[in-house]
């Protein structure tokens, strides 16, 4: 397996070639490349990998400066990872990792600064600015049923604390999961506000008792 990255032009986008070598795929069936870049849509035939001399190959153009999670899907043997990925991160499913292609480490282009003769400015008393307060965030992964990816999705939707999660309706949480893509709709957020209420009030013992009764947050 291999990930080949090629930068052209201004470098705002990078062409990444994904290769599954001969005998590395679980079978001779078609293989689809799925990831953040196509919202994990299994019915997107445009991401079907091409067979070349026994290998599977697919080149796509991705925005530089980002990290993308991805996996391969064999039409008859199911999901498998890239052994040459840049990294691996936990998926929303317990015990399963996603492969990562990292496009954040490319060197930034240097800007050319023209030297000019500046006039001496009048001396002004500097006005001290107050540092911006950091937004409060809680570790939503302490809520059973919420993994790293879902915690990030909720935080981006303004639900980054136990207090806000406790005040969110189950219907709102279901809509957020639905909007995030089909791979998240299997999660049931029915107990999340109740768990978050206990976490927000610091009732960790009661939260543990509740979580012992739950199955994956359900």
Description of the structure:
- There is one protein chain.
- This protein is an alpha+beta fold and 218 residues long.
- The chain folds into two domains: 2-103, Immunoglobulin-like, CATH 2.60.40; 140-211, no CATH class.
- Helices cover 21% and strands 24% of the residues.
- It contains five helices and nine strands.
- The protein has helices at 148-156, 162-167, 170-180, 192-200, 204-213; strands at residues 2-7, 13-20, 31-35, 50-52, 55-63, 67-74, 78-80, 87-90, 97-102.
- The strands form two sheets. Strands 3, 6, 7, 8 and 9 form a five-stranded antiparallel β-sheet that branches. A four-stranded antiparallel β-sheet has the order 1-2-5-4, with no helix packed on it.
- A hairpin with a 2-residue loop joins strand 4 (50-52) and strand 5.
- 20% of the residues are buried.
- The mean pLDDT is 86.
- InterPro entries: DNA_repair_Rad51/TF_NusA_a-hlx, Glyco_hydro_13_N, Ig-like_fold, Ig_E-set.
- Keywords: Endonuclease, Hydrolase, Nuclease.
Brief rundown of the structure:
This protein is α+β, with helices and mostly antiparallel strands. It has helices at 148-156, 162-167, 170-180, 192-200, 204-213, and strands at 2-7, 13-20, 31-35, 50-52, 55-63, 67-74, 78-80, 87-90, 97-102. It has 2 domains: 2-103, Immunoglobulin-like (Sandwich); 140-211, no CATH class.
The chain-level structural class is alpha+beta
CATH topology of the largest domain: Immunoglobulin-like
Tell me which oligomeric state these chains represent: single chain
- Architecture per CATH nomenclature, i.e. the level-2 architecture of the largest domain: Sandwich
Number of H/I helices:
5
CATH first level of the largest domain: Mainly Beta
Low-pLDDT residue intervals, each spanning 5 or more residues: none
Number of domains: 2
Helix fraction by DSSP (H/I, runs of at least 4): 10-25%
**Using DSSP, what is the number of strands?**
9
Going by CATH, the homologous superfamily of the largest domain would be Immunoglobulins
Order of SSEs: EEEEEEEEEHHHHH
Strand content: 15-25%
Shape, principal axes of CA atoms: flat
């Amino acid at each position: 397996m291999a990930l080949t990255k090629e930068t052209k032009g201004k470098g705002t986008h990078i062409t990444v070639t994904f290769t599954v070598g001969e005998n590395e795929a679980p079978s001779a069936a078609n293989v689809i490349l799925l990831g953040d870049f196509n919202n994990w849509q299994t019915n997107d035939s445009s991401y079907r990998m091409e067979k070349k001399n026994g290998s599977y190959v697919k080149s796509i153009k991705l925005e530089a400066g980002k990290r993308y999670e991805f996996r391969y899907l064999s039409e008859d043997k199911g999901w498998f990872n890239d052994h040459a990925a840049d990294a691996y991160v936990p998926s929303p499913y317990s015990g399963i990792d996603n492969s990562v292609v990292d496009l954040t480490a490319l060197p930034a282009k240097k800007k050319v600064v023209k030297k000019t003769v500046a006039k001496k400015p009048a001396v002004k008393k500097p006005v001290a600015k107050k540092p911006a307060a950091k937004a409060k965030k809680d570790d939503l992964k302490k809520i059973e049923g919420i993994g790293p990816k879902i915690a990030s999705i909720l935080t981006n939707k303004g639900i980054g604390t136990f207090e806000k999660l406790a005040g969110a309706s189950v219907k709102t949480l279901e809509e957020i999961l639905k909007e995030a893509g089909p791979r998240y709709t299997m999660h049931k957020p029915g107990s999340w506000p109740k768990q978050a209420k206990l976490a927000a009030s610091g009732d960790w013992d009661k939260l543990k008792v509740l979580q012992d009764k739950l199955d994956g947050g359900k």
